[in-house]
């Protein structure tokens, strides 16, 4: 392979011979391709698909965005088809294509796993394509992506031996026994995928191993559980054959529906998950059989217009997220419209939406995006320090944890919390601490609901026989700290019955070592009376806090065992269970765990930053201007005649019954606008309930529940969609999820 210096000399000759027009060193179009002007490296983009209508409309969208974004170099579709499929396939002209033998059904094992076609297709391209001999850098994308701006590997920071990739945080197998089983270098396993930008020499070394490791992990059925894998594997094994690490960037790509970081301009939209804008929503899985590429005039359902979003959302960053949502679907529709025109379809009738897609406004909104300075700085933090000027500020690593038990009651709460975690923009990973008896585990179905650490149940105390499930929270944290190695500097502790609305970070809420952050629990009156004096030597240091905790890892390691022991103490102190001492309206010691935390922290003189701006209970009136980060739906809340009480759903299996959901709250348009406090309170209550239903819908969709095409997302008006509110009338109406 020629050196970069030699190539930089040759590029001038190449430009002259090819007759390319270069202006100002920027990329210029030449037909359907964009070539690099003065850049000294050749780029080739790859993506893998199969012979299906489902991939054809994705191909049209990706190809259109490839041209629109002015991505340098050629692009090749790796098309995996069986001989039988090719006989009826209509989409050979949708993109520059290399046909690849299908490995969806593995030729040796018979395993059905279409995703293996991606590494198999790359191996085939390297062996059989002449274009692979004339390239320096390769960009690998997925078909369900929209390119928003040029992806230039060296501008992203890629080097030979150090590829750049998007972050796939759910690949938890990089942190556990799965990596140790399948790679000699588990410490180099990077949680990456979606976008890969790497030198051709690195790809030649990687591709065969990528394929073989995919085959290995598919055969390792014993470690398919979510707590080992995070459910999806293949590209996570990129570091196997070399002693260098991938540069990971989680600013380049965003899922529509997620909120972008402030100041970051994503250059890739990955529409792999359902997303919505108001009552409009889109899920790619609903269009698995669509003939939309070949039916003239057919487009996806038009989303709201940009001006409607300005009225819909006041928060600038959330509004940016909505704009990205509609940009994704509008770009897909624009690509389909141009494809239909190019293939001789009759000119469609005028409509407001078609007029918008052809307008200067839309062209301006979707012009090629460049990486922002903020994106570049955040990338460089992980690679090198600034040479001049003030050093770039780096943030500590965060890990979020929450405690549950093996029951349907905690499963639907887990689905809601984990779904909201991924939408919130919360940094780091999340772990469920699952406390179960051996007997419970034999029957338990919810292993795949979240990255999970399994904990022996202490609901029935092993020494005293006391039945107190709440003790599992501190007991699980002690177990997790003793059995899991984490590089996180701060731990965020939540309860399962919470919905995240935004990131909870130590730097924003001023947490520090020796100074945790929490939310007020004013009803813990025992901090002011004989209870504190009995159970801590520093009663003056007892803070009435709980719910959300942000704590330095070293403080948590000091506190965890004390938290557990103080919980046991208060639980055993039955003489002080009365309401006038504890504030417990049931006078049954049920809030002993909360006191265990406060008394343990007091014993260590850990004084809290107490924030009123993190958590709100649905049904409470919000303080104007406060952007609460968490709903805690621990109490019943109402909107008019509608109400929600989590306790009423203790024994209902919402997760494993296809399309089950909670009763829909009222439509926001039906609310009384005469009282601003009541209006804002009710809007938050509706948001909380809708978030739970959207999480359930997304989970059932991922589980491929039957009848998907006939059902709609919970944000739409769907009177025929079954819910658990009708379960007692028609117990046979819901179907079990295909787990």
TrEMBL record:
Q: Tell me where in or outside the cell this protein is found.
A: Membrane
Question: What name goes with this protein?
Answer: Peptidyl serine alpha-galactosyltransferase
- GO MF term set: glycosyltransferase activity
Q: What is the organism lineage in this UniProt record?
A: Eukaryota, Viridiplantae, Streptophyta, Embryophyta, Tracheophyta
Q: Which residues form the Hydroxyproline O-arabinosyltransferase-like domain?
A: 44-246, 399-666
Q: Where is the composition biased (Polar residues)?
A: 709-729
Q: Which organism is it from?
A: Sesamum calycinum
Give the record's keywords alphabetically: Glycosyltransferase, Membrane, Signal, Transferase, Transmembrane, Transmembrane helix
Pfam annotation, one family: HPAT
Q: Where is this region: Disordered?
A: 709-731
Q: Which PANTHER family match?
A: PEPTIDYL SERINE ALPHA-GALACTOSYLTRANSFERASE (PTHR31485:SF7)
Give the signal peptide range: 1-27
The way this protein sits in the membrane is described as: Single-pass membrane protein
What InterPro entries does the record point to? HPAT-like, HPAT/SRGT1-like
**Record has Transmembrane as a keyword:** yes
- Which Gene Ontology cellular component terms are annotated? membrane
